[in-house]
Amino acid sequence: MTDLFTGNSKPGLTRELIEALLPMFEEASAGAIAVDRQSYITWINNSYSQLLGLGNPEQVIGKPVRQVIPHTRMPEVVETGKPLLLDIMEHNQQQLVVTRMPYYDDQGAIEGAVAFVLYDDLQPLTPLVSKYRRLHRDLAAARKALARKARGTRYSLADFVGASPEALEVKRRARLAAGRDMPVLLLGETGTGKEVLAQAIHSASARAENPFVGVNVAAVPENLLEAEFFGVAPGAYTGADRRTREGKFQLANGGTLFLDEVGDMPLPLQAKLLRVLQEGEIEPLGSNKVSHVDIRLIAATSRNLETMIAEGSFRSDLYYRLNVVEIGIPPLRERLADLGVLCEALLGEICEGQDLRGEITDAGVAALGGYDWPGNIRELRNVLERALTMSEDGDLLDADAIFKVLPRTSGATESRAPVRAVRPLAQIVADAEAEAIEEALVACRGNRTRAARALGISRSVLYEKLSRMS
Ligand SMILES: Nc1ncnc2c1ncn2[C@@H]1O[C@H](COP(=O)(O)OP(=O)(O)OP(=O)(O)O)[C@@H](O)[C@H]1O
User: Fold this and answer.
1) pTM
2) What is the predicted ipTM?
3) Poorest-pLDDT segment among 25-29, 56-60, 127-131, 214-218
4) Where in the sequence is the domain holding 242, given as residue range(s)?
5) Is 251 exposed, middle or buried (0-12, 13-18, 19+ CB in 10 A)?
6) Measuring CA to CA, which residue among 249, 252, 259 is closest to residue 219?
7) CA-CA to 201 of 20 to 30 Å: which in 72, 81, 177, 333?
8) Which atom of ligand 1 approaches the CA of 377 most closely?
9) Which atom of ligand 1 is nearest the CA belonging to 260?
């Protein structure tokens, strides 16, 4: 072993301290090294030179440390005077956990640095490292989710679950749409995932860092739609706010505006929307100033716009403006092959954060396949949620558990099915009662006391009815 500190400067306090601590560190560590002010090696112990595969330690004294240990950060410590107390360094495909500290002369000037290899084998640290990696992954996912939420989106393309040819085609077109800054028209029945897809397209587009603003045209009273869309100038009408109220177009500026149920838009507003799309300018209510907006429009509807055009209730020129990229989302009954993966994803979502581990048997999935799903994936989610709430045998849903909660008929089958046989009134009443109880339990997340209160019956009566139902 060579002498620790070469050079002729007088030993100072810090240096003394390091010298005092060195034997202890040296013994506890898998190797130790010191460099001078120019990052030239002044000392290295035997164990470190063996670890580095150097043979004779003397031959590296006086060499620049980077020449011997290419990935070392000792020069940085000497330059900045800041210790690097914990670092992982690669050397010859080994990962070394190292600590590095500067040391000073009497006048307080940096004289060099020392480093110790704390571990030359990460094996004992595996639980710690994997915990760190897991936390890091969780943190990254949470940051991403938070950022998405801040921008108004919750979904990415991976959230559009499905592996059937129909689902893959939807995803392929969505990816295509994401790459082009053009209007998109999503066509599909209620609950097929139009909003999921709109958010996913936004998240995968160049506008992803900008806002995603959604507005359900059918949910806004007709007389408020214009203000909702284009905003209101201060004092635009009696009782109007003194401040400017921004409309959805301004809020979505730079990002994506999602118009859900665009088929429900009244004709006068359709004309205004068309103008905005043609000119890229909006005029808030009560203002005579126009302002430029830059948005990508994604519209969706469950209605047949072509029939509406023929009937005169939807403008054909607007239709062609909106329908640059059209994506038809098939109803669930046309992609029953996806039932299994959808159940898995939805049960995972439902059980998240709860002390539940929902699973479904193959027979359970087959039972779901016999239904025609007028409410599509939203309805599937409700059925699974209800089945879990009602399930008596833990969290495994079999065919029986599904049949118990599956609606007996759906709107779609009802309209196609022949008139049903007349049934005894008592049975109809019992069925209606069972359905009301299931709904109350779902609404109260399985809390029977609250469900009983909501139904206006006592807990004991609810229990009695439940036992008769099962
Ligand atoms: N492909 C899918 N994968 C996973 N979940 C989905 C999918 N499609 C829809 N969902 C879920 O179904 C529910 C309804 O989806 P969404 O609101 O996007 O449907 P929608 O077509 O916009 O319905 P509506 O026309 O009634 O507004 C949501 O909870 C959503 O998470």
Assistant:
1) 0.61
2) 0.97
3) 127-131
4) 152-330
5) middle
6) 259
7) 333
8) 12
9) 27
